[in-house]
Design brief:
single chain; about 260 residues; eight-stranded mixed sheet; 12 helices
Amino acid sequence: MTKLAITGKGGVGKTTLAALLAYLYAEEGRTVIAIDADPDANLASALGFPAEITANIIPIAEMKELVAERTGAQPGTMGGFFKINPRVDDIPDRFAGTHRGIKLLMLGTVQRGGGGCICPESALLRTLMQELLVRRQEVVILDMEAGLEHLGRSTAAAVDAFIVVVEPGLRSIQTANSIRQLAQDIGVKRIYIVGNKVRGEADRDFVYQNLPGYDVIGFLPYDENVIEADLRGEAVFDLAPALVAEARRIKSRLCEAV
């Protein structure tokens, strides 16, 4: 089964790619779980989830009663004793919103009192990631922020492909280099690049020239239909056929690679 983690600098379009791939796998009849792990959660919008469904999807980290029940400690507490491997197997089915064959979970943000601290919310989310990536059999599309907050060595090996989305720009390239180093540090083996907001051959060349040694598996063109989809609250998949066509090629490359 396919487990994909998609990341990149904020604003490069990783959520757009995550939404496109989720629909491409869903149209094959496969069960898809889309995970919004970015604090700036926009995956529901990119998937075109109706507002009434999105309103009922509560980020897991914000479910104080659930965190306390499963870990034995109150959210926000540091130190002390709590379960580091709480029960999570029922969470995807109980708390995901479902639309057009795609289940959507939001992880939420863990409020930290200090760098690298261990807290009940973090323990619950890490165990949930292990459940989704290691034990579950569905396709999992993980829309992440630039960091690897919820992935550890125990789950990284279960990711079939780690996709870094970049746009033509040096800040995006710098972030891609940082992400690759972080990913390699926790044992991710397959790291691919997708260029987004590409306006022509010069932009493609920019990506190749500034990321030598990377495996670039495709490009998504600059498309104002992405903005239109956002304005209308509809799925990018429905309004941007040029992006869908390129996403199909990217998916084919992934199938060949993994």
